[in-house]
Amino acid sequence: MAAIVEIEDVKKVYDGGFAALKGVTLNIEEGEILALLGPNGAGKTTLISTICGISRPSSGAIRVGGHDTVSDFRAARSLVGLVPQEVNLEPFETVWRTVRFSRGLFGKPKDDTLIEKILRQLSLWDKKDTAIRALSGGMKRRVLIAKALSHEPRVLFLDEPTAGVDVELRRDMWEIVAGLKADGVTIILTTHYIEEAEAIADRVGVINNGKLLLVEDKDALMTRMGQKQLRIDLQDRIATVPPALHGFDLELAEDGGSLIYRYDTRADRTGIAKLMAAMSEEGLVLRDLQTSQNSLEDIFVGLVHEPEAAA
Ligand SMILES: Nc1ncnc2c1ncn2[C@@H]1O[C@H](COP(=O)(O)OP(=O)(O)OP(=O)(O)O)[C@@H](O)[C@H]1O
Ligand SMILES: [Mg+2]
Questions:
Q1: Are 30 and 186 in contact (CB under 8 A)?
Q2: What is the pLDDT of residue 103?
Q3: Which of 122, 170, 194, 268 is most exposed by smallest CB count within 10 Å?
Q4: Which residue has the higher pLDDT, 267 or 256?
Q5: How many domains does the chain have?
Q6: Residue 302 forms part of a structural domain
Q7: Which atom of ligand 1 is nearest to the CA of 42?
Q8: Whose atoms come closest to the Cα of 21: which ligand?
């Protein structure tokens, strides 16, 4: 897969002097769904606005489809659709006119068949002649998506598409996103919901304090999540893991006072019983046992609360 969005060491310092992005580098592959997780104020909206050309990077460069977002703004902007975090619609306009007008803003020729297809896809067709102010909050969010899709973008940014929406609409939104991916659209979404990232993303990025802390394949993260640790405290310290135990994923800790055993909770057998038998044969006496599990949430919380590394 080729990168459709290339972000190179992007920094953003707002007018008041606040550094909201402190050097972000990231390639977004064509056709993937990337979920950006991060606490309030992390820089998610700033990053998205900068990629979409609404805000300029203070330094660094961004290219969309090979077009620089500053020097080649129009070409870059025409490839992206943005569903903003805040609802910003004209209350007295109808759904139909709102979405149709949005396409015109990008200089694309009228295409009522396409607008109809988008409205149907988003279950808005029966509301097409309704004024925006007479829609529910969830419907307004759908109109925002319809607007963002009206000029057939290759990359769609969804800034917290499911914040404050009910469970059903959240699932609908996930289905919509999956459908768009099937149509070949690249999708970047921000979210506060870890289960949302788990449900739909191909890759997960964690951003905090203007820095991208991690970008990893979701399945790899899930595998890590599925891992559980068993800590075995020993009666007597050992210098090395005995050869008879080399077949187990063991690590010596606490100066030889403990063994850490990693196993997959989703595997048929954990291997614990075998390990215990092998340890007993080696004459190792246990003092205590403790298990702990890594979840995406732990990884996230751990990353976000880590003391900032010296910049
Ligand atoms: N126009 C602006 N001028 C000055 N500072 C800003 C501006 N916009 C955002 N900031 C600051 O930049 C930081 C990042 O804001 P941003 O909106 O990107 O966060 P976010 O990750 O989207 O948060 P949230 O989850 O709350 O939406 C915040 O500290 C914010 O106060
Ligand atoms: Mg935001």
A1: yes
A2: 93
A3: 268
A4: 256
A5: 2
A6: no
A7: 21
A8: 1
Q: What's the CATH number where 111 sits?
A: 3.40.50.300
Q: SS3 breakdown of the chain: % helix, strand, coil, rounded to 5?
A: 35, 30, 35
How many CA atoms does the CB half-sphere of 242 hold within 13 Å?
12
β-bridge partners, 8: 61
Q: Which of 37, 44, 50 to mutate to test the pocket of ligand 1 (most atoms within 8 A of CB)?
A: 44
pLDDT of 138: 85
Q: Which residue has the higher pLDDT, 60 or 141?
A: 60
Centre of ligand 1 to C-alpha 20, Å, is: 7
pLDDT at res. 265: 72
Per-chain mean pLDDT for the chain: 89
Shortest-distance ligand to the CA of residue 191: 1
- Over the stretch 200-229, which tens digit does the pLDDT of each residue have? 999 999 999 999 988 999 888 777 766 788
Counting ligand 1 atoms within 8 A of each CB, the residue from 12, 13, 21, 46 with the most, and so the one to mutate, is 46
Q: Are residues 152 and 242 in the same domain?
A: no
From ligand 1's centre to the CA of 133, what distance in Å?
28
Please report which ligand is nearest the Cα atom of 39: 1
State residue 188's pLDDT score. Answer: 97
Range of the domain at 29: 3-223
- Same domain, yes or no, for 165 and 274? no
- Asked whether residue 231 falls in the same domain as residue 218, the answer is no
Residue nearest to ligand 1 atom 2, measured at CA: 14
For ligand 1, atom 8, name the residue with the nearest CA. Answer: 46
User: Does residue 198 belong to any structural domain of this protein?
Assistant: yes
Residues 120, 269 within the same domain: no
R_g of the chain, CA atoms, integer Å: 25
What mean pLDDT do residues 167-190 have? 89
Pocket of ligand 1 (CB under 6 A): 14, 16, 18, 20, 38, 40-46, 85
pTM: 0.79
Four-point Cα dihedral 167, 170, 172, 177, nearest 10: -160
